[in-house]
Every structure is written in C-alpha cells, then in structure tokens.
Amino acid sequence: MKNLQTQQVRALKEGLQGPVILPGDYAYEAARKVWNAMIDKHPAAVVCCTTTADVVHAVNFARNQGLPLAVRGGGHNIAGSALCNDGLVIDLSEMRAAQVDADARRITIEGGATLADFDAATQAHGLATPLGINSTTGVAGLTLGGGFGWLSRKYGMTIDNLESAEVVTAAGEVLHASATEHPDLFWALRGGSGNFGVVTRFEFRLHPVGPNLLAGLIVFPIAEAKQVLQQYREFMDKAPDELSVWVVLRKAPPLPFLPESVHGQEVIVLALLYTGDPAQGKALVEPLFRFGVPVGTHVDVMPYVAWQKAFDPLLTPGARNYWKSHNFSELKDGLFDTVIDYIARLPSPQCEIFFGAIGGATTEPAPDAAAYAHRDARFVMNVHGRWNDPADDARGMGWARDFFKASAPYASGGVYVNFLTDDESDRVKAAYGQNYDRLAQIKRQYDPANLFSTNQNIRPA
Ligand SMILES: Cc1cc2nc3c(=O)[nH]c(=O)nc-3n(C[C@H](O)[C@H](O)[C@H](O)COP(=O)(O)OP(=O)(O)OC[C@H]3O[C@@H](n4cnc5c(N)ncnc54)[C@H](O)[C@@H]3O)c2cc1C
C-alpha cells in the first residue's frame, strides 16, 4: 500500500473544505468499505468532498500528481469501482442535498445522494422518478449506468428523466451538460457510467406518484415455478405500463406473512407495484394470485417510500456478493427449466435469481438516443450470489457462473453495465453495445488521458 508524502498531504488539504482520510486514521477502515464485502482496496487518501470546488481541487490534484482516481457515490457498485488502490478516492457521501420545485416537477440533487434521499425529498410533494429497488443505492452510479426500477415501465429508465447535470471534467472544468449545452457529454452521461467526469449535481424531471400505491409479494412453492413463470410471461405481454411485476426465486426468508414451515424452503415470488389508482390495480393483479396456490401473500396499499425500502433488509451492506447478469427480450421455456434446476442447488440461503421486468417506456427511445443502448431488453436477470463466509466464495461463484453459462443461450447478448463484476472486462463492450465507438470518441474529447478509469472503462478513441 502506498502512502502520500507529507508535502502531498499538505497540498491536498490546502483549499479543501472537507476532510481527508489517510491510512492509519481512525476513520480509514470504514472509508474503504463498500456495499460488497468482497472488495478489499487500500486507497492512499479518501477526500470527503463537501462542495463542487472540493471536487475540482481533488480532480486537479490526482491528475497533476499522476495518482489513480476513483469516485464514490453510494458505494454500491458490485465491482467495487468506488475505490482504487494507492490513489485518491473522491467520496461524495457528504454531498446529498436535494431541492424540489414541485410546480415545475423538477429536482436537483447532489452527486452523493442515495435513493432514500431522493424519494424522501420528492415524495413530500407526491412526486417521483424511476430509481432502483434498494434505498441505500447511490443516485449517481445508478443514473450513470441507466437506472431502472418499479416505475420504469411507465416512466422509462432513470436517464430518460435526466434533464441536466453539473460535471467536473478531467481538466478540472465545471460544465453544465443538457440537451442544449455540451449535448455530446450529456448523451454520454446517460449510460456511459463514471467515464466522463464527476457529476456533482443532477437535475431530473418528476411525475405524480403515490404517495400510497398498491404493492406487495405473492409467494408460491417452487414446485409450481414452471407454471407460474409461463403464466407470468403471458401476463406481462399484456400488462399495462403502470404495472411492474418482477420474479424472484430463492429460499424463503422469515417474512412475517409466511408460515414458519415455508421459511428456508425454495419459493418463487412475484413482487409487484401498480403506479395508478390502487382500486384499479387490485382488479388487474387479481389473476396473479391464481398462477398456483400461494403459500403466502402480502399485497396492499402502502406508501411508495415504504415499498422502495421493502428489500433493504435482504440487501444490507457487508455480505460477500457475486453477480452475473443477462438481458432478455423474451423468456423461453428452456430458460425456466434451467432456472428451476439451479434454484434446487442454491449455495447459500441468501442467493437468488431475479427477473426485473422493464419493457414499456424503457423500450421507446432509439438505442442511440442516449449512451444506454439496451432498448430491446424487456427483462434484466441478475444471479445474485450472496453469503457471509469467505470460505464459501468458490462454491458460490461457481454456482453463479455455471447458471450464467447455462442461461446464456436464451439471452439477448446485452448486459446492464451496473450489474457487471470486476472480472468481466470482456463484457464491457457488450454493456455499451452499439454505442461504444461514439462513447470512445466523446471520451477522447473529455478525458483523453483516461483519468476516470476506475469504472467499466471506455478507452479514449
Ligand atoms: C443491493 C443493490 C440493488 C440494486 N438495485 C438496482 C436497481 O434496482 N436498479 C438499477 O438500475 N441498479 C441497481 N443496482 C445497481 C446499481 O445501479 C449500481 O451498483 C450502481 O453503480 C450504484 O451506484 P452507487 O453510486 O451506489 O455506486 P458507487 O460504487 O459509488 O459508484 C458506481 C460507479 O459510478 C461512479 N460514480 C459514482 N458516483 C459518481 C459521480 N457522482 N460522478 C461520476 N461517477 C460516479 C463510480 O466511480 C463507479 O464507477 C443495485 C445495486 C445493489 C448493490
């Protein structure tokens, strides 16, 4: 592990409002932890920025000193790209302020905010925009990769709702990117991941949502998985965009509405949210209960913010996580057989395979309308390997990789950049798809020396 020299530390601290955390400091161990406990990196310094000027100073310092650089939003990226070894980490977790203009239906929010920060600010006005399903995820990383969640079928990817961004470039310039200012940079930010600079502030469009919506879970025994999946496929073909239903296959956690006899048993779960009038939603979701004989159901009208946090207890930081992901434009029977086969061999009680239904509004823009290219994806599958003991790494990773290979023949070939692990550099081009070459051109313009390289990297053309 490399340490900065005393005069480097002095120069770094001069001109910064926020603190700098160095190896040996009390706060260092906490500052080098991210959501995924498999990541074990040792930065030379963590700069806790509190203003855009702090970010400019840190970017200039890293560039001038030739140091590796990483940027931390919510610290959720599975690949651990919020951290680097022996370099500088720009930590934005102190920059989380949000301002909502309810009349204009706009939010501006800082680059270190979490989804919980965003939803709390917007739901105070009955507004929202599509975000992910775990409230401690960072708005920044999620948005820069595309972003999808329960509202996406109705209102598109998170990036489809981005109006503008304040960006600190590799040259240390502060730019405002939008459809009319630096439009090429704005195009690249919407799916190009953290390659183009540090986003210090985002501006999003908002939609009237909730605050109370119909949402919940319907749980079936695994023996009914095939019939549930087949009916799910037919159902989603006709479902209105207001309704999102995702499928999760895993061992049942000890949820209060499940009988004790089901806890720890393999189950197939339908998780749903209806963004329209809950009374209409109830009629619409009624057929879902008849896909089999549920072992437990919990579908009710609840605050949107509560549903946005419903999965947090299963997704706490600190576990070892290994993911594998495919996009699908259709779901075939052979895929269902493969999934069921692998669910019978789960390597730990925390592992799961889920299918997030997107489609709807996410498929409307052209694939080159923004850097995010996967407008054909109707389902994003994630094999979520998760366990606590490092001794389980090989078994858990082996299971995830084997299932990934077995399910590949049914996949579209594309992959969501935000679900790539750090050993998947061979899939980076597939993640950016047909937009890779244009991204590489824009990278050359805004970051010719590839200062922002701790990410799913796009090399300057
Ligand atoms: C439990 C869990 C659930 C998830 N659910 C969803 C979901 O429902 N939908 C979905 O779309 N995704 C989901 N994701 C994936 C998530 O979008 C990515 O992990 C994303 O990278 C997280 O962003 P972050 O800011 O928290 O991560 P970080 O690790 O902090 O950052 C991720 C990447 O973005 C860069 N970055 C971060 N902040 C900035 C910034 N301000 N400016 C420039 N670059 C920046 C980093 O350098 C890094 O390369 C989930 C992830 C987890 C762990």
UniProtKB/TrEMBL annotation:
Organism: Acidovorax carolinensis
Needed cofactors: FAD
One Pfam family per UniProt: BBE
Protein name as catalogued: FAD-linked oxidase
Family: Belongs to the oxygen-dependent FAD-linked oxidoreductase family.
Record-annotated FAD-binding PCMH-type domain positions: 39-209
Record keywords: FAD, Flavoprotein, Oxidoreductase
GO molecular function: FAD binding; oxidoreductase activity
